[in-house]
Design goal:
The protein has 110 residues and is mostly beta strands. It is 5% helix and 40% strand. Strands 1-6-5 form a three-stranded antiparallel sheet, with no helix packed on it. Strands 2-3-4 form a three-stranded antiparallel sheet, with no helix packed on it. The chain has a two-stranded antiparallel ribbon with strand order 7-8.
Length: 110
């Protein structure tokens, strides 16, 4: 999964990303306009940026990658291994095992 935040004018060293359990918090601060300078137009947001994302249990918060380029913060959040489809071995009762080529969801829904 990928999450992108538009943060124009934010310096990379002002970004702060925290993860606590399955909550990701992104904070950044854009410097205010010089009060001695008269602005004709100001289109960039100024001040503090603060967002929280609650991630599902099927995402791997230990392996989140963050990059910041051209005013866009990008978080890449992989799916946890435990949430990926896998094969289940079924005991046939005769000390042999048979592999079923179905996911756990397909077996339960059958």
């Amino acid at each position: 999964f990928v999450v992108e935040f538009d943060l124009p004018g934010i310096k990379a060293d002002s970004l702060d990303i925290d993860i606590e359990r399955n909550v990701v918090t992104v904070r950044a601060e854009s410097p205010g306009v010089d009060p001695d300078r008269e602005m004709l137009a100001a289109e960039r947001p100024r001040g503090v940026f603060n967002r929280q994302l609650v991630l599902g249990e099927n995402l791997d918060t230990e392996r989140i990658l963050a990059s910041y380029q051209e005013g866009v913060l990008k978080l890449s959040i992989p799916v946890a291994e435990r949430a990926k489809p896998r094969k289940i071995s079924v005991d046939r009762g005769n000390n042999g095992h048979q592999t079923i080529n179905k996911t756990a969801h397909e077996i339960i829904d059958a």
